[in-house]
Structure formats: C-alpha cells, structure tokens
Amino acid sequence: MVDGESDELIFGDCVLRPAGRELLWRGQPQPLPPKAFELLLHLVRQRDRVVPKAELLDAVWRGADVSDNVLARTVMKVRQALGDTGDEPLLLRTVHRVGYRFQPPGGVSTAAPGDGPAAPEGPSPAAARPRLALLPVHNASGDSTLDWTAWGLPLLAAQALDGDTRLSILATETVQHALSQLPAARSAKPDEALALQLAELTGAQSVVLASLRRSGERLRLDYHSVGRHELRGSLKATEPGALGGQLADALAAGLFPETALRNTAQRATPDPLASQAFARAIEVGGQERWEVAARLLRVVLDFNPDDLYARLHHLRALANLNDAEAERIGLALVADAERAGDLRLTAAAHEGLGRALFNSAADAPGIARARQHLDTALALARPFDDEDWVIRIYLGQAIAAQVERDYERARRFYDLAWRANERAGNQLRRAVILTNHAVLSHHAGDLLVARDLAEQALALCERHGLRANSVDALACLALAEAGLGLFRQATARCEAAMARLAELPANEHDSAAWVLLIAAQLAFELRSPGDLAERAFHAAAHLGDGTLRRVLAALAVAWAYRAAHEGDLAGAEAHCQNALAQSQDNGYAESVHLFQRWRLGLWLRLRPAAELLAQKAAWQAAWHALPRWAEDLPLQAAERHARAAQAQEQGDDTQALALLAQTRQMAPLGSTRAHAQLDAAWLQLEAGQPAEAARLLRDIGPWLREHPLGLAVAARLALAQGRRDEAGELHQAAMEAMRHRSPPFLAALGPIYAATQDALAPPRAPRLLTLL
Predict the structure, then answer these.
(1) Beta pairing class for 109-111 and 138-139
(2) Are strands 51-52 and 92-95 parallel, antiparallel or unpaired?
(3) Where does 64-204 show beta strands of DSSP type E?
(4) Residue-wise pLDDT tens digits, 667-685
C-alpha cells in the first residue's frame, strides 16, 4: 500500500505526520525517538502485510549490526506512544517467529497536510480540561449534626460531576490524602492559602472552598474558587444533601455557561441518613479505617441497593480488607455499570475488582485474573488518560507485573504512569511513581538507579511536606545504600523513617513493615547489638489482623532476622517458611525469590555449609521451581557463594576462590558481590598474596570503611603490607563496631595486631570471613 510521501496517516485517535516527523494522540504530540518513528512509519505504510524482522532492521537501521532485542525495545516504545500496551496489542501485532503487522481496528485514512479531521470527540487533553478539587465544607451553621457535610457535600458534588467528560474532578480520597500531608489542613477552617497549597500538590487548576450557614428555615452554601477559574455563588436548600447536586450544577454552569451539565453519573441517594453515612464512609476510608468504612457503606446500600457509586466504594473497602465477598460484589458491579453505559464507572469497577483479586490472590492464576480486569479497566480508561484514577490503574498494573517478576512490563507501566501524571501535575503521584520505580530497580539489581530515584522522591516529599510518602522514600534509600555499603547513611535513613512513622496515625501501611525488615537486616549484617531493630519492632507493633498478606510476609522475614541475630536457626527457619508459604500461596513471585536468597544467607551464617549442602537437592529443587529462575542472577550467585563456603571448610581454597570469582561475575552490585570480594581478599591474604587481595578490593568502595568485616580485611591487608600501627587501629575499629557480637576468631586476633614486633601470621579462618 502506497501513501503520498507527505500525507498525514490517521488511525483511531492518532495522526502520523511524516513531513514533520510527528505523532499526535488526541491532538497532543507524543514523544517518539527517531528510530521508533521510522519503524512506525514503515509499518503503517506496509499495513496490508506482515513485515519481517529482517526487513525492519534493514529499513530502519540500514544494515547496522542490531540485535532482535533492540528491535523489540523499539517496538515497545512505539506501543507506549500509541497507548497499545495491553497483553494483546490492538494496533501493532507481533507475528511470532516472523515479524510485525500494523492493523488498527478502524483502518487507516490519509489526508494532505493540514486537511486531516479534527481531533475525535471525547475528553480533551489535560491542559485543556478544567481540573477541579473540592475542599471540605466549613460548617458555620452552629449545628453539629451537620458536621458530616464537610466531606459529604464535596463528595456528592464530585459524584454528580463525574459523568461530565469536559472536566476532571479530583477524587475525594485523593484530596483527603493530600490534605493529610499538609500541616495547615489541621486548622478548623480551610482558607485560600490551603487551597493554593492543595493546587500545587495535586495539579488542580482551581480549588473550590465553601461555607454552610443557616438562612431562616433553609441552609445556604456560599462557595468560591481559587486558581484559574472564577467561580462564585450562593445556593439554598431545605435538605443539606440537595446542596451537593446544586453545587455540581453551579460549577458546571460557571465553567461551561453555553451548555447544560452533561451528567450521566448516578447521583447519591437523597436520604439524609444515607448521605451522612456515605460521607462518613469516605472520610474514614481516607484514613484507611476500612472496616468502619465497609459498615457505613452497608448502611447506605440498605437505603438504596442500586447506588452504583456506593457499591464501588464498598468494593474498594472490601478489597482492602481482603474480604472474600469482594469478588462477587465486584462482578455484579461490573455487569450493572456496563448496563448503565457509564464508561468511567465501568472502568473503575474493573479496577476495583482487579485490586480485590490481586490482594486476595491465592496463586498465579489468581493474579492473572486480577490482571485481566486491570487490563480491561486500562482499555476503557484510555480517553481519560490524565485523570488520577487512570494513573492508579497504571500503577496497579506495574505493581502486579513487579510481583510476578515481569520487570519489563512493570517498567512499561511505571513509564505510562509517569507520562500521564506529568500531564496531570500531581506531586503526590509523582512521589509514589518514583519510589515504586526505585524499589523495582533495587530488586532488579540496579542499586545506583534505585538510589537516584529514591533521592528524587525524597526531595519531592521534602519540598511539598509529604510526610507519609517520605517514609517510603527513606526506606528505599536505606535498602539501596545498604547494598552499596553506605551503612552509616542507611542507618540514618532508618532512624529518620522511624521518627516520621511515630508522627503518623497508626495504619496498615507497608512502610512500617519494610522499615522494620531493613532495620533487622542492618543489625544482622553489621553484627550490631540491634537497638535500631528493636525500636523498629516497637514501631510496627500495631500491624496484625487485617494487614495485607504481603506485609505480613515481610514481617515474618524481619522476625527471621531477629531470631538469626540471636543465633536461633530453628526460629529463623520457621519464620522464613511462614513468609515463603504466604508469598507462594498468594503468587508473590518476587517476594519468593527475595526470601529464598535471604533464607540462604541466614542458614550460611548460622550453620556450616556442609549442613546446608547436605540438603542440596531439596534446596535446588525449590529454587529451580521458581518462575523465571534462569533470570534470577542474585539467587544463583548466592548459591555459588554457598558452594565456595563448603570448599573452604573442606580445605580447598583454590576451588573456593574459583567459585567466589563466579559469584562476583554473576551477582549485581550489592551485598552478595561485596561478600564474595571480602571473602576472596581474605583467602588471598591467608595465601600470602596481599597484591591480589588489594586488587580484589579496588572497587568495593565504602564496604571497606563502613562494614566491620571490611575493616577486618583492611586491618589484615595493612598487617601484610607492614603497616602494623594502622592494622591495629583498623582491627580495634572493627571490634568496636561489632561490640559484644564480634566473631570469636576475629576477637582472638587482637594480640597479633597489638604486638609491637613481628609476630606469627594470623591463623586460617575456620569459615569464609563473611560467615563468621
């Protein structure tokens, strides 16, 4: 099929402009690298056939030596730009073992430059659509029975406006979460200064403030806006619930005076008691008090079982409680929302059901079902790409993929979330995306990238006063910096995270569990007394019944480290098995991989390697049964380290050094590689090879200065090089760092370092250094 060289190519919501090398989606330019643009253009022009990979490589890279992986990554970038990111792409299909075909459902039309059709009717881009946030109403009536209107009226108004695709309303839950981060929100009456802070934090173009007063026998609601749009007025009604709908109509009329409110949303029931219960449910839901929220929403549904929005919020509460009823309720809601023809509500119902299935998934097929509903929500949500709830769907997809160790898919959805959020300008979501992406990078072995992303997230949190989100960023920084050997900084991050946790209301947030786990790992790694870990255990004491299963699994591993720190292998193994069982039963592949590697490290520290390897077949069977085992280089490197330990204990240092070399080559930057370097350097020093030991330590960085065993190796190297005074100081520093938990073998070396004249060389270590 041949098109004019400069013809615009139009398909779906997209326009491809060859002359300007530009791709538009709904009238907005989409960033596309040069090679990706050339690949898309070639596929669109050859849309009547499957294009072989070899042809694409020749047409786009013109004979350059490029692998199929480069082609696949370029195709992925094209799909991201087109929004064609489902499990079964609709526009750009892969024909396995052959190539690719561009085959949009509606076909491709052409137009001369500038003569193309107008952007398709539907939601306009984020920059063009008014984006509103509603602050809680100030109850100035003197009637405490109307306190529920603080969140109740904004909720009813937002709900009524939800069906109007000309504007974007921040969800009440999003506003509540944003205000919880702002100290100024603690004042009794929201003011314009707070409105401006909220606008900066969430990307809202205008923020609406309102006050409720008595006016004779009626109620009067005075409202005005701060920001881009000038909205102001007074409304009157006998029943307070009616003011929510009136406020929605007035805001729509102020924004679009030429047309009436285009509202397809189902309004909340006007019953006063139901309205109060609904408002209170949303308020406590924003505080993560899900059991209370679910009970209140049940009251609302007793009044009106057909209230689809109340059913949606009920589903979300049950999803957070891992309630078995969530699936049944979610499936019924999806069916009813589809019958009502409400696209936004249908997408939100699929998203809520997907989250419920994800939280309660008992196996990998359960996670696949969850992802299917999230994919459906994603497809339906495409016209609303800039909205907060759509970004939550992207994040849900990314997290689900990360749990399954599908890191490429996870990165793709984090990138989609980032791009959509950059258009929306929500700083809260930006912090969440940065932190989650940092965790992904850490688990994938990219510690430097993880640290950079977490530092960006923390800086953003500090700039906007995001207290709860800063705990996540600090925990991620502690994890990355510990892997890099920056133990003083990692410890300080944990201290700061615990201090901030103490300032926040107790909830079931993952942060407390992960801060506890990191603190326990630091105490075990550094052979320290564990004061930090004990304080972390106290900070996480509120976590218990109702806590998400993946959080309970992290808590179990923290308890395993605590038991191991006390020398209790049986207790550590029991906790590890508990964590592994919870993770395996729920299909958390990523957690299973991590916990297996950490469990191996605990075993090696507490028992001779021979005992571990006596059960080699069982351990290897468990590892090889893991999904994506072949891609888990950190776990495979840890297994090589275990075999090196066995060789050393059997007196075969040559084999031990060979296995440690394999460990270093296989392991990404982090503790496993650093342990292998320290162990190999110590063996070389025992063999009288200080030059080789020094070579091994060249790129180990802060591990040599901040880890007690790094100090021990540095002391031994200084002794071998004749720097006896320095050796004694380094050995003393290592002993002080470990205080009362110094390995007996290292403590016994004190007299050798303290001798004023040459003495006998230190004896051979009974085990690898890092396992003492």
Answers:
(1) unpaired
(2) unpaired
(3) 92-95, 99-102, 109-111, 131-134, 138-139, 168-169
(4) 988 999 999 999 999 999 9
Mean pLDDT of all residues in 696-712: 92
- The Cα-based distances of 632 to 521, 569, 658 in angstroms read 21, 25, 21
In three-state form (DSSP H/G/I as H, E/B as E, the rest C), the secondary structure along 598-636 is: HHHHHHHHHCCHHHHHHCHHHHHHHHHCCCCHHHCHHHH
CA-based end-to-end distance of the chain = 70
Q: How far apart are CA 347 and CA 340, in angstroms?
A: 12
- H helix and E strand count, the chain: 35, 14
The pLDDT of residue 233 is 94
List the structure tokens of 92: 């750009």
Band of residue 122 on the pLDDT scale cut at 50, 70, 90: very low
DSSP, collapsed to helix, strand or coil, labels residue 426 as coil
Amino acid at 254: G
C-alpha–C-alpha distance, residues 622 and 218, integer Å: 70
Tell me the average pLDDT across 299-320: 88
Residue 312, C-beta contacts closer than 8 angstroms, at least 6 positions apart: 333, 345, 348, 349, 352
What was the pLDDT predicted at 629? 81
**DSSP-derived 3-state class of residue 171:** coil
Helix, strand or coil, per DSSP, at residue 133? strand
Contacts 24+ apart (CB under 8 A), 328-332: 330/356, 330/357, 330/373
Rg (CA), the chain: 30
List residues bridging with 139 in a β-sheet: 212
Place of tokens 């006016």: 215
Closest alpha carbon to 370 in 378, 382, 361, 379:
361
Q: Which of 219, 222, 215, 233 is nearest to 145 (CA)?
A: 219
pLDDT digits (tens, 9 = 90+) for 552-574: 788 888 888 888 888 888 899 89
Tell whether the model's pLDDT for residue 633 goes beyond 60.
Answer: yes
| Cβ atoms within 10 Å, residue 641 | 29
CA 450, CA 443: separation in Å to the nearest integer?
9
E strand or H helix that includes residue 207: strand 206-215
Residue 640: predicted pLDDT = 93
Q: How confident is the model at residue 733 (pLDDT cuts 50, 70, 90)?
A: very high
Give pLDDT tens digits for 33-66. 888 888 999 999 888 888 888 888 888 887 666 7
HEC string for 384-413:
HCCCHHHHHHHHHHHHHHHHCCCHHHHHHH
CA dist 550 and 303 (Å) reads: 36
Per-residue exposure over 141-153, b if at least 16 CB sit within 10 Å of its own CB, e if not: beeeebbbbbbbb
Q: Which of 64, 67, 41 is nearest to 53 (CA)?
A: 67
Instruction: Give the H/E segment covering residue 223.
Output: strand 218-227
Comparing 131-145, 420-434, 465-479, 755-769, the range with the smallest average pLDDT is 755-769
